[in-house]
Amino acid sequence: xxxxxxxxxxxxxxxxxxxxxxxxxxxxxxxxxxxxxxxxxxxxxxxxxxxxxxxxxxxxxxxxxxxxxxxxxxxxxxxxxxxxxxxxxxxxxxxxxxxxxxxxxxxxxxxxxxxxxxxxxxxxxxxxxxxxxxxxxxxxxxxxxxxxxxxxxxxxxxxxxxxxxxxxxxxxxxxxxxxxxxxxxxxxxxxxxxxxxxxxxxxxxxxxxxxxxxxxxxxxxxxxxxxxxxxxxxxxxxxxxxxxxxxxxxxxxxxxxxxxxxxxxxxxxxxxxxxxxxxxxxxxxxxxxxxxxxxxxxxxxxxxxxxxxxxxxxxxxxxxxxxxxxxxxxxxxxxxxxxxxxxxxxxxxxxxxxxxxxxxxxxxxxxxxxxxxxxxxxxxxxxxxxxxxxxxxxxxxx
Length: 398
Hints:
This is Oligosaccharide repeat unit polymerase. The protein is mostly helical. It contains 18 helices and no strands. The protein is globular and about 65 Å long.
């Protein structure tokens, strides 16, 4: 199989389609099929655009000597940054955080309470350093992963990759959230895929990747159980409820727990399409800015009695309100095109890895929502990418 088919986005969309068909929820067959059709449309646009953009299987790399001592220093600073930012956002001391995790106490509840009581949700100059600290965590993790895509594997490099990702784990444990684990997964998928493009004889460690995904799913499931005081019972988290007759839930309960993130978006867009088709506005939504000037907001259907729960709006819905349905699909195609074009540069550099990772996150976000701009740190990474591209354009950096 061509290495192209191991592109994380390719695997992600295939996985979403399979998940939408199997997820144990009690929705009408029609809704499920429309949701799958929506995913297949996005997949087709990605596949076509990225296939057109593909130039070569291999990446050209000019290796450079790595100062491991300096990298160790940068990674060490990550731990200072994570304990500082973790305490700022949660008010929890490091030892208390570890104690809560071991005791099964929900750091998420404590984080939410502190976040509201300390009024951290409002922006202020006092938030600059914590935001930059989280940005630093992600930047160094990405840089070390970039090094690992082309450098000859040594034990100390593998250890360094792990050590650079641990602060993201710690930050997730501080807040009791799971998004950091998802970002780690995307980073690893990008690392493995790009390494296979640098070294064409590199065999993708499928078993290890599956083991990683299984481990992260276990952590996610545990985090959810802790939030419910280890008394989690599947209920109607959104408009759909779990299908009690599904054997999959009995053996794989995490499949339903993931539905709020990975099935709500496709299900919502199926209902969205039916709603606007019945109202006759679906053709008007082909026009740019129609939804914006009509006052449509993300999760628009929630205003009509749809039980949305604490979920994200699919990024594709937001794009249709600003650009119209047709241009929204073109936007998906352009981002897909440039995701692969980052690997077609004359020389593979950090800006290539950063761009590939960020556009991968955005392509992940279109069907389900808000993966890329979920945090201020990610927005700074986007600005950094644009800055590096401008500098590269004017040949001020290589």
